[in-house]
Amino acid sequence: MTDNVKLNEIALAAEAALAEQFRLIDETAFVNTKKVMDAFREHKVSEAHFAGTSGYGYDDKGRDTLDKIYADVFGTEAAFVRHNIVNGTHALAIGLYALLRPGDVMLSITGKPYDTLDEVIGISGEAGNGSLRDFGVEYRQCELGEDFVPLLSDKRIKVVFIQRSKGYMNRRTLSSAEINNMIARVRAVSDAYVVVDNCYGEFTDTTEPNADLIIGSLIKNPGGGMAETGAYLAGSAKACELAGYRLTSVGVGLECGASLDTNKSMYKGFFYAPHTVAQALKTALFAAYIFEELGYDVEPRWNESRHDIIQAIKLGSPDALCAFCRGIQAGSPVDAYVTPEPWEMPGYSDKVIMAAGTFTQGASIELSADGPLRAPYTAFFQGGLTYESGKIGILSASEAVMALGK
Ligand SMILES: *Cc1c(COP(=O)(O)O)cnc(C)c1O
Description:
Layout: H1 3-42, H2 61-74, E1 78-82, H3 88-99, E2 105-108, H4 118-121, E3 138-141, E4 157-163, H5 176-189, E5 193-197, E6 213-217, E7 231-235, H6 237-247, H7 263-293, E8 297-299, E9 310-314, H8 318-330, E10 352-356, E11 368-372, E12 378-382, H9 387-402
Parallel strand pairs: 2-3, 2-4, 4-5, 5-6
Antiparallel strand pairs: 1-7, 6-7, 8-9, 9-12, 10-11, 11-12
Helix pairs in contact: 1-2, 1-7, 1-9, 3-6, 7-9, 8-9
This protein binds pyridoxal-5'-phosphate.
Pyridoxal-5'-phosphate binds at residues 87-89, 114, 116, 163, 165, 167, 197, 199-200, 217.
């Protein structure tokens, strides 16, 4: 049997096996789309909301209404969404600096946070650079699964931090329900704020975590592949007010901040987001099935529950990892002719190879993959704006890996 015939057979079997899960994903997308559309109707979204403001940006109707829509859809008291929050890390830093004061303690109860927060917290980086640690905020952590309740007896703990997605770590991704259980246990014994890094999780469940702040990037799930840049914070009125002060300045808060001409893409992106997340989830399931059939360990497996859009595939050799990323790149809508090469990245000890043929630079709701060149040579991939294009990317990656003749 030629590789092509074999791959076709596996792809057909994949879609037959995945039919029921695809249906459940569509159901989640329907429930979430209904929430978004109900909020749009409730807030009387119209052409006028798409117009931007300049200068101070007072009375930016589009911006202020989108904030309320995010709050309604995510089930929070308040929210804000801004194009000038540059990425997820920036949004998380805004949330943490907003709530923590000198002498306070931040406790992460899901292990070490995402790498880019190391310097924000002061786990790494130079003294004097303005990290939380520089400002006298102490950091503690316990691993996911450890009993965190006894640790909360320390009243200096002001922020309890939870990361929803496994990110690029070797741990489970948490569902909203699991996070809400953890939050209830925190609140039973502590007045600390609970902050959730919600990146990659939005709209994979029918509810979002019920924290004091949930935080995420618009070039991931909630931007729906339409938002050009930006991030959101949502949660209690108090925490959002403090975060607004940190975003701009104390006193100014959320009253200023011209939206320029970004409103429409953020509305349209939020409208698309539940559907786009469904496309990315289907692409991930399809890949999990195919690569397992090809003999690779995948995480999660195709029939396991999912609460984020990340798929890990252990490719076992540098050649296979590079072939996978090159195949993804060749199966992308933009820069498909480019050949990714492994390169040294600041802050990483091993070379990293990346594939990103995306419309929006670095957008990981679009099909994208990367992996450090070290054993077990795992590719992490996510996204796919449409299932059809995601499938094309995965088939291209499969062909490239099969051509190595494992
Ligand atoms: C993407 C991500 C972030 C933020 O990363 P940016 O690249 O700054 O947007 C934080 N935490 C997790 C789990 C993420 O996936």
